[in-house]
Protein backbone atom coordinates (compact mmCIF):
# COMPACT_ATOMS: atom_id res chain seq x y z
CA UNK A 1 0.00 0.00 0.00
CA UNK A 2 2.93 2.36 -0.49
CA UNK A 3 1.27 4.59 -3.08
CA UNK A 4 -2.10 4.47 -1.40
CA UNK A 5 -0.81 6.18 1.76
CA UNK A 6 -0.24 9.42 -0.12
CA UNK A 7 -3.73 9.54 -1.64
CA UNK A 8 -6.44 11.85 -0.27
CA UNK A 9 -10.16 11.27 -0.65
CA UNK A 10 -13.21 13.42 -0.03
CA UNK A 11 -15.72 11.72 2.23
CA UNK A 12 -19.23 12.52 3.33
CA UNK A 13 -20.24 12.32 6.97
CA UNK A 14 -23.77 12.30 8.28
CA UNK A 15 -26.12 10.63 10.71
CA UNK A 16 -28.63 7.95 9.87
CA UNK A 17 -32.12 7.70 11.37
CA UNK A 18 -30.73 5.80 14.38
CA UNK A 19 -28.14 8.49 15.16
CA UNK A 20 -25.18 6.44 13.91
CA UNK A 21 -22.50 8.42 12.06
CA UNK A 22 -22.09 7.18 8.48
CA UNK A 23 -19.03 7.99 6.39
CA UNK A 24 -18.85 7.35 2.65
CA UNK A 25 -16.17 7.81 0.03
CA UNK A 26 -18.12 8.59 -3.17
CA UNK A 27 -15.12 8.11 -5.47
CA UNK A 28 -14.82 4.44 -4.42
CA UNK A 29 -18.06 2.57 -5.18
CA UNK A 30 -19.46 0.81 -2.13
CA UNK A 31 -16.92 2.28 0.29
CA UNK A 32 -19.04 3.07 3.35
CA UNK A 33 -18.43 2.77 7.08
CA UNK A 34 -19.95 3.98 10.32
CA UNK A 35 -19.27 4.72 13.97
CA UNK A 36 -20.89 5.81 17.20
CA UNK A 37 -19.03 9.14 17.01
CA UNK A 38 -17.82 11.32 14.15
CA UNK A 39 -14.21 10.47 15.02
CA UNK A 40 -14.92 6.73 15.05
CA UNK A 41 -16.71 6.94 11.70
CA UNK A 42 -13.77 8.85 10.18
CA UNK A 43 -11.25 6.33 11.52
CA UNK A 44 -13.37 3.49 10.17
CA UNK A 45 -13.74 5.03 6.70
CA UNK A 46 -9.98 5.55 6.56
CA UNK A 47 -9.50 1.82 7.12
CA UNK A 48 -12.33 0.98 4.70
CA UNK A 49 -10.76 3.12 1.96
CA UNK A 50 -7.47 1.23 2.27
CA UNK A 51 -9.24 -2.13 2.13
CA UNK A 52 -11.47 -1.13 -0.78
CA UNK A 53 -8.45 0.07 -2.75
CA UNK A 54 -6.63 -3.21 -2.11
CA UNK A 55 -9.60 -5.26 -3.32
CA UNK A 56 -10.12 -3.10 -6.41
CA UNK A 57 -6.40 -3.40 -7.27
CA UNK A 58 -6.47 -7.18 -6.81
CA UNK A 59 -9.49 -7.45 -9.13
CA UNK A 60 -7.95 -5.19 -11.74
CA UNK A 61 -10.64 -2.54 -11.31
CA UNK A 62 -9.96 1.18 -11.53
CA UNK A 63 -9.13 2.38 -8.02
CA UNK A 64 -11.60 5.24 -8.19
CA UNK A 65 -14.41 6.65 -10.29
CA UNK A 66 -14.81 10.28 -11.24
CA UNK A 67 -17.09 12.28 -8.98
CA UNK A 68 -17.96 15.96 -8.71
CA UNK A 69 -19.82 18.06 -6.22
CA UNK A 70 -22.62 19.94 -7.92
CA UNK A 71 -24.94 22.43 -6.29
CA UNK A 72 -28.62 21.79 -7.02
CA UNK A 73 -31.43 24.22 -6.25
CA UNK A 74 -34.89 22.96 -5.32
Overall 3D form: globular
Q: Which architecture name does CATH use?
A: 2-Layer Sandwich
Q: Could you please say which CATH topology applies here? A: Double Stranded RNA Binding Domain
First and last CA, distance: 42 Å
Q: Largest sheet, described in full?
A: 3 strands, antiparallel
Average predicted local confidence, pLDDT: 92
- Number of helical segments with 4 or more residues: 1
When the domains are counted, the total is 1
Class inferred from helices and paired strands:
alpha+beta
Physical arrangement of strands within the biggest beta sheet:
1-2-3
Low-confidence stretches: none
CATH class label: Alpha Beta
- The helix/strand order is EEEH
Q: Indicate the percent of residues in helices.
A: 25-40%
Please report the total strand number as a whole number: 3
Can you offer a commentary on this structure?
The chain has one helix at residues 38-58, and strands at 12-15, 21-24, 32-35. With 74 residues, it is an alpha+beta fold. The protein has a single domain (4-58), classed as Double Stranded RNA Binding Domain (2-Layer Sandwich), CATH 3.30.160. The chain has a three-stranded antiparallel beta sheet with strand order 1-2-3, with helices on one face. A hairpin with a 7-residue loop joins strand 2 (21-24) and strand 3. The longest helix has 21 residues, at 38-58. The mean pLDDT is 92.
Amino acid sequence: MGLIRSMKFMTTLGRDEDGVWVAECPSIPGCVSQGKTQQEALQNIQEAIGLCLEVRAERGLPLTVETRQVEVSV
